[in-house]
UniProtKB/TrEMBL annotation:
Name of the protein: PucR family transcriptional regulator
UniProt record similarity statement: Belongs to the CdaR family.
Coiled-coil regions, chain positions: none
Domain named PucR C-terminal helix-turn-helix: residues: 435-493
Originating species: Saccharopolyspora hirsuta
Lineage: Bacteria, Bacillati, Actinomycetota, Actinomycetes, Pseudonocardiales
PANTHER family noted in UniProt: CARBOHYDRATE DIACID REGULATOR, PUCR FAMILY TRANSCRIPTIONAL REGULATOR
Length: 501
């Protein structure tokens, strides 16, 4: 068998114990032997076992013998070395190595690598098995353990390439859409990645490492260790998923019991709510987040909670039906300003969620006590159902936005109103800038230029210019609430009619 000087330098016993003083470390090594008064073989790495004075002429003579025979290099004990000797090795292009560990130990490990190349891989796999063991370990512990075994950066990534645990300088190089082990050459090393596969068609997580410098020569033995560690992550995923699903079923059952209440909650129901950390007293504002396509609500719950927290919404969130039901509780009745502020936070959270989830969101009014919780959740559910058909509102609807206009909406669906509504907004038809949709979004957003711009995905100056044109074309003042209500109803009637098959 053969190897290379570079590969020997990646062996754990050699990695931190040998310095390269000169020469090409890509030289092929066929055998490793201690220095003796004999002929040097081609591809032989000569190990000087005993200390030798830096001024000893035998060092220079050995370098010449290795160069003449086509040897693989010379390994010396660490010590003073004449610069002329190093320059000679450089000129002869003979790898010259200096060892801080006992050279005899290094000779033995090199011979083992030559005699049984798979032994290094087996040792690493066995060490990974022993270090991780059968116990369920969290990802952070798995990454830390593997980093210590490889002496290299290790990280766990999600399917978008974002870091979950550990650190990895070139994490963006991992192709998370390809469900196969990967290898990528870096400027100074190698990137290796292994998918963590469950029952999904593509991996949900990736375990990756970067082998820098001389460690890159060991890239042929590390993938098996990554595979063992990926199995440990898989065990954690399965156990965690089982726990999440058990908790989700328990929470959904508790929510169902609360929503079916027609009297005061029983002592047992109050205890179950307390165990779940839910407060039944105080004032509640219901939230309903519906999903329009098949979504694994259990798996995505933490993402929903994270987005709500990022917007400052401290809500209980429960996997419920084809989405999530939640609520915010306060000890005192929230003021109108607080309700508007909460609605703005939830609208911002809806926009963020819609980046990755096809959701529609409804928000109820504040109601007190346990029976009020069921009431506000029912309102939020109705609002979410309506928000689903209203892209102009950003698929978001707060019950307080409905008011009298919603009561009048039934009238807007009559045969007599729709023609009148079409006539009212006819001047906007055919104009550049989609003025009807802009007007509807502007009125749904309570005349907020910034909110309208966010819903439409345009600059606020664009919205302001369009509103000026709308007022000019219709000869109306949108600051006048009667005219604003009439136009709001007209836009709603026309868009609803056009949306129906």
């Amino acid at each position: 068998m053969s190897t290379s000087v570079r590969r020997l330098l990646a062996v754990p016993e050699w990695r931190d114990s040998v310095r390269v003083l000169a020469g090409d470390v890509d030289r092929v090594v066929h055998l490793v032997r201690a220095m003796a008064d004999r002929t040097v073989e081609p591809g032989e790495l000569v190990v000087v076992v005993q200390p030798i004075p830096a001024t000893d002429w035998r060092i220079d003579a050995l370098l010449r013998r290795v160069a003449d025979a086509g040897g693989a290099g010379v390994l010396l004990p660490e010590g003073g070395l004449l610069e002329t000797t190093r320059l000679l090795a450089e000129r002869l292009d003979v790898p010259l190595l200096a060892a801080t560990a006992p050279p005899l130990d290094l000779l033995i490990s090199a011979r083992l690598l030559l005699a049984a190349p798979g032994l290094d891989r087996a040792d690493l796999v066995l060490a990974t098995h022993d270090a991780l063991g059968p116990r369920i370990r969290p990802p952070e512990e798995i990454v830390t353990t593997l980093r210590g075994l490889l002496d290299a950066p290790v990280a766990l990534l999600d399917d978008s390439g974002a870091l979950i645990a550990g650190e990895l300088p070139h994490a963006t190089e991992v192709r998370t859409h390809e469900p196969v082990p990967q290898r990528a050459e870096l400027d100074d090393g190698v990137l290796l990645a292994h998918p963590v596969l469950l029952d999904a068609p593509r991996p949900t997580l990736w375990l990756a490492t970067e082998l820098p410098g001389r460690s890159a020569a060991r890239a042929d033995v590390v993938p098996q260790a990554l595979s063992v560690a990926a199995a440990a992550v898989q065990r954690w995923l399965l156990a965690n998923r089982l726990e999440l699903e058990r908790d989700a079923r328990s929470r959904a059952a508790l929510l169902g019991d609360l929503l079916r209440l027609d009297d005061e909650p029983t002592a047992d129901l109050r205890r179950r709510a307390a165990d779940a950390g839910w407060s039944l007293g105080g004032w509640h504002v219901g939230i309903r987040i519906g999903a329009q396509s098949a979504v694994d609500t259990v798996a995505r719950s933490r993402e929903v909670e994270r987005v709500l927290r990022a917007e400052g919404v401290d809500a209980v969130v429960v996997e419920h039906g084809d989405g999530w039901t939640g609520w915010v509780t306060s000890e005192q009745e929230p003021t109108a300003d607080r309700v508007r502020s909460l609605a703005a936070q939830l609208r911002a959270a809806t926009r963020e969620l819609r980046r990755t989830l096809d959701v529609h969101v409804g928000v109820g009014r504040p109601h007190p006590q346990a029976d009020g919780l069921a009431t506000t959740i029912a309102e939020a559910t109705d609002a979410a159902r309506m928000a689903r058909t209203r892209p102009e509102s950003g698929r978001f609807l707060h019950v307080d936005q409905l008011g009298m206009a919603q009561l009048l909406l039934e009238w807007t669906r009559t045969d007599t109103f729709e023609p009148a509504a079409r006539t009212l907004i006819a001047p906007l038809r055919g104009q550049p800038g989609d003025l009807v949709r802009t007007l509807a979004a502007y009125l749904d957003a309570e005349s907020s230029i910034a909110e309208t711009a966010a819903v439409l995905g345009v600059h606020r100056n664009t919205v302001a210019a369009r509103i000026e044109r709308i007022e000019r074309l219709l000869a109306v003042d949108l600051g006048h609430r009667d005219e604003r209500l009439a136009l709001h109803l007209a836009c709603r009637a026309v868009t609803l009619a056009e949306d129906q098959p």
